[in-house]
């Protein structure tokens, strides 16, 4: 599942043309403080918490109810 979670976030960032630096900035505006390098490491490893996933989705305005069920 780590690969799927990582792939999901990478695809969402690519689709929105958002860099890790930009994501860091967007997350900071919502009160989630992570450096671009920390975000990159978490996503590339795929070993991040569900809370982190929710924070990223919140920062990107992704409604988890709309995620394709193939991920699960």
Describe the structure.
This protein is mainly α. The protein has one domain. Helix content is 62%, strand content 0%. The protein has four helices and no strands. It has helices at residues 2-16, 20-29, 36-45, 50-59. The mean pLDDT is 90.
Task: Summarize the helices and strands and which ones pair or pack.
Blueprint: H1 2-16, H2 20-29, H3 36-45, H4 50-59
Helix pairs in contact: 1-3, 2-3, 2-4
Low-confidence stretches: none
Main beta sheet: strand number and arrangement?
none
The number of domains is 1
Can you write the helix and strand succession as a string? HHHH
| Distance, first to last CA | 8 Å
Give the number of DSSP strands.
0
Count of helical regions? 4
Strand content: under 5%
Chain-averaged pLDDT = 90
User: Which outline best applies?
Assistant: globular
Structural classification: mainly alpha
Helical content class: 55-70%
The radius of gyration computed from the alpha-carbon positions, rounded to a whole number of angstroms, is 11 Å
Q: Which key phrases capture this entry?
A:
single chain; mainly alpha; 0% strand
Quick description:
This protein is an all-alpha fold.
């Amino acid at each position: 599942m780590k690969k799927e979670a990582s792939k999901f976030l990478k695809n969402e960032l690519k689709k929105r043309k958002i860099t890790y630096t930009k994501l860091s900035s967007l997350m900071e505006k919502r009160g989630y403080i992570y450096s671009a390098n920390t975000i990159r490491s978490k996503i590339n490893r795929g070993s991040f918490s569900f809370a982190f996933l929710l924070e990223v989705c919140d920062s990107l305005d992704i409604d988890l109810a709309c995620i394709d069920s193939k991920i699960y």
